[in-house]
Write a structure and sequence with these properties.
Layout (H helix, E strand, L loop, with lengths): L1 E2 L5 H4 L2 H10 L6 E5 L3 H12 L12 E5 L5 E4 L2 E7 L9 E7 L2 E5 L9 H5 L4 E5 L13 H6 L9 E4 L3 H5 L7 E2 L9
Parallel strand pairs: 1-2, 2-3, 7-8, 8-9, 9-10
Antiparallel strand pairs: 4-5, 5-6, 6-7
Length: 189
C-alpha cells in the first residue's frame, strides 16, 4: 500500500517507477495506491508521460487506486485511513492522513501551511510525521519548525518526527526540538 498526500511530483511522481519495478520483478501481490480525488486519473497520465504505452500494459498484479475524500475514513488495503484537507494547492485537495496499524496510530501532515485541522490529525497518535520545510522563515503553503513549536501544546501525539526539510531546516537541524527524519531512518513504535 502507498498513501499519497497530494499530487505534486515530489510526492507521487515515483509511482510510475514503483509500478514498473513491480512489473519487471514479477510482482503478483496487489498494489493499493490511495490519495486525493483525481489520483485515479493522474496516475495513468503520469505513467503515459514517463513511459508512453505503459498505462495500458497488462500486469501480473492489480494496481488498485483508492481516492480519499477529505473528512472521511476509508478502508485502504484493510486499514482505516482518515483524510483531512490541508492548505497546499496541488490541483486536487491536499491531504493530511491518519491510519491505524497493529494498534498504533500514525499521522502525517503532508505539505501544508498551519491549519486548525492539524491538532485533530495529531490527536493521541503514536507518531506524528510533520513537514518542516524551514526553521523560522515563512514559506507559502508549508510548515516551519517555528509553526510546530508555537502549536506544540495542541499536538497531543506521543512522538513528533519532522520530514521534508529544506536547506534552511537542514542547516539548523541541531536547533530542532523534534526528531528530524533522514534517509534510512527506521522508527520503532
Amino acid at each position: 500500500m502507498v498513501l499519497v498526500s497530494h499530487l505534486h511530483a515530489d510526492h507521487f511522481g515515483g509511482l510510475p517507477f514503483l509500478v514498473l519495478d513491480g512489473q519487471f520483478t514479477r510482482r503478483t501481490r496487489p498494489l493499493t495506491v490511495a490519495g486525493p480525488p483525481g489520483l485515479g486519473r493522474r496516475l495513468p497520465e503520469a505513467m503515459e508521460l514517463y513511459f508512453p504505452g505503459s498505462a495500458g500494459v497488462s500486469r501480473r498484479f492489480p494496481v488498485d487506486v483508492v481516492e480519499l475524500a477529505p473528512g472521511t475514513t476509508s478502508d485502504v488495503a484493510g486499514l482505516p485511513v482518515t483524510a483531512f484537507e490541508v492548505d497546499h494547492p496541488s490541483g486536487a485537495p491536499a491531504l493530511a492522513l491518519r491510519l491505524t496499524l497493529a494498534g498504533r496510530t500514525i499521522a502525517y501532515t503532508g505539505d501544508t501551511a498551519w491549519t486548525p485541522v492539524l491538532p485533530a490529525v495529531a490527536a493521541a497518535a503514536d507518531l506524528f510525521i510533520a513537514e518542516a520545510y524551514s526553521l523560522t522563515r515563512p514559506i507559502p503553503y508549508h510548515l516551519s519548525h517555528a509553526d510546530l513549536v508555537t502549536h506544540q501544546p495542541e499536538l497531543t501525539s506521543r512522538w513528533i518526527v519532522l520530514t521534508h526539510p529544506g536547506p534552511d531546516m537542514l542547516a539548523h537541524r541541531a536547533e530542532s526540538v523534534f526528531d528530524l527524519a533522514h534517509d534510512g531512518l527506521t522508527l520503532e513504535l
